[in-house]
């Protein structure tokens, strides 16, 4: 019977996965030697016990025999424990990705000990083995260390970095719950136990019990100039097994601010959304358009907090056309939602106006013209500087050349005295008027204005008078000659 049991153990040993035949053969030989040594020590102990009872040997000799038997029994037990531990296997039964009430992405692993399948073998010899203790029959797996890694670079992306499970009973399960430090659809689960390492790449299930779509945005707070638009990237992840049609609500955004939702892949404008089979993540873009001017609802530098909520069609119809909600009402909505922030910013804009940008002058003359500098933006302009870009040797005197501040909608008159050189050439010349300013410590972009000046030669006055008198004399002579000719 003992020989049969030994062969059963050897057969079981050679079924262990992950070990070479050399390792298996080595353990089999060690097991055979340990069994033989144990039986010899046990037999000697039994014989010495009878001799001690008959006072044939001393107590010291009997104790040595007893200790030797116990030592060999322990060695044999160690090999059996090694055999059982090598058959231990931890199964990853479930790997579920979910989102808690703090909007944190988490992964929950369900681990199961599969050693219960080996009990059929163990039961064949456990009742015959006096060295097979109850602790050995439990087949409990001790000290299982669990971590989750990024598949691409094997970086740990779970917090805590590693979880220790003290033990898993035969056929029982244990849980390991991680906070995802980096969002992922698939992870590598690493298990360390019984001196071996087991890794598996796993596509994470979604927690269908939540039945919702989570929304995240990396650009949740933006500053945008009045009259322009802000674009928010939205990442939607479905935690549901249904194929519902989802609709969007944007609440607490003033009516003056319009918006559109676009598909990030094809830029199609959306009003509803449906996830295709096997697709759990969609990328969208929300674009919000600010009006040109501030009003009672939209103030410069005052943040506008609003929410984007995604609901299935039935829940959306229950909500109705609601645009304004209290924080308490929003918190009570069991759906995917995200808080976004939009800060309207004023924009500085300079407009330069002039009655005419074309002038004609004579050589030796100068040009004096008025221009009006107007703040056509929505923020106060500071340090407005007016300069000109002149032709060679031309000069311009500007009064004033710096305007300290200019409120939105206000204007200021500036006089430009353009002085050509004494030896100016006849022809067309150009003078560019440039403006520089800042608004809220930002440089304001401006548009140059060009003044076109036509310079003409000056005619001598004396020559002109003599020419006129000559013409008058010629005309008078013609008249006199005509009269005399008619009297003949």
Comma- or semicolon-separated keywords:
alpha+beta, Immunoglobulin-like, 8 helices, 5-stranded mixed beta sheet, Helix Hairpins, 26% helix, 488 residues, 4 domains, 6-stranded mixed beta sheet, disordered N terminus
What does this structure look like?
- It contains eight helices and 29 strands.
- It is an alpha+beta fold.
- The protein has four domains: 2-87, Helix Hairpins; 90-206, Immunoglobulin-like (Sandwich), CATH 2.60.40; 212-345, Immunoglobulin-like (Sandwich); 350-456, Immunoglobulin-like (Sandwich), CATH 2.60.40.10.
- Residues 1-22 have low confidence and may be disordered.
Largest sheet: 6 strands, mixed
Helix content: 25-40%
Class per helix and strand makeup: alpha+beta
What is the CATH C-level name of the largest domain? Answer: Mainly Beta
Report the β-strand fraction as a percent range: 35-45%
Low-confidence region ranges: 1-22
Fold blueprint:
Layout: H1 2-13, H2 21-53, H3 59-87, E1 90-99, E2 105-113, H4 119-126, H5 134-137, E3 141-149, E4 158-159, E5 163-168, E6 173-180, E7 186-193, E8 196-203, E9 205-206, E10 212-216, E11 221-225, E12 229-239, E13 245-251, E14 258-263, E15 269-270, E16 272-274, E17 281-289, E18 304-312, H6 313-319, H7 327-331, E19 336-345, E20 350-353, E21 358-362, E22 367-375, E23 381-389, E24 395-399, E25 402-406, E26 411-419, E27 427-439, E28 442-443, E29 449-456, H8 461-487
Parallel strand pairs: 1-9, 11-19, 21-29
Antiparallel strand pairs: 1-2, 2-6, 3-5, 3-7, 4-6, 7-8, 10-12, 12-17, 13-16, 13-18, 14-15, 14-17, 18-19, 20-22, 22-26, 23-25, 23-27, 24-26, 27-28, 27-29
Helix pairs in contact: 1-2, 2-3
